[in-house]
């Protein structure tokens, strides 16, 4: 990693500003359970919170293949999208597992096709920092500046901290995504089960609500009564099936 340390670290880092950035990022992603939504929030927060950065993007790979892309500026999304070509600062950062710095694209000889597109979109400087998410997903966060003199040591340090923090938060998002998928599978299995499915149908009829909401009502009742879900379902079905006295 080529980290310019000619300026004092704490003078250039902006400790309070960086802490505010990481806090805002945490608040924005703490409850998100969708990876694409998390990426979209990540790049917006980074763009708005890091001075001198015109736009921010994220390039993600899953099992070595393109798995997602996000850009704070839709007009510059192609800079992070590997469908436009794999020879990019983001891919170099991912392959080398180190931060890649291109402070002046007018003097940049690497990634010629990408650099030409970037200059055409008003980008004059870039930093790409690798992000480790989990055993399946890796990526890079990309900071872009509209001036060749905008990127400083502070931006390099912020990019490094941002990548580390984003990796932890995105790993948590992926975990919540997997938990939600498992919960959906469990819900589907329960809805197909005889008595539970019947009870859900009763609640849907009574309340005029969809199946997931009816199942949630059934779960709430089971929790309040401290009895198994299936037993609550059986009681409900028996109650509605009981012949009424004339």
Automatic annotation (TrEMBL):
Recorded GO MF terms: RNA binding
Organism per entry: Micromonospora narathiwatensis
Keyword Protein biosynthesis found: no
Entry keyword set: Transcription, Transcription regulation
Domain ANTAR: 176-237
Domain of life: Bacteria
InterPro entries in alphabetical order: ANTAR (IPR005561), GAF (IPR003018), GAF-like_dom_sf (IPR029016), GAF_ANTAR (IPR012074), WH-like_DNA-bd_sf (IPR036388)
UniProt-listed Pfam families: ANTAR (PF03861), GAF_2 (PF13185)
Gene3D superfamilies cross-referenced by the UniProt entry: 3.30.450.40, Winged helix-like DNA-binding domain superfamily/Winged helix DNA-binding domain
Designated name of the protein: GAF domain-containing protein
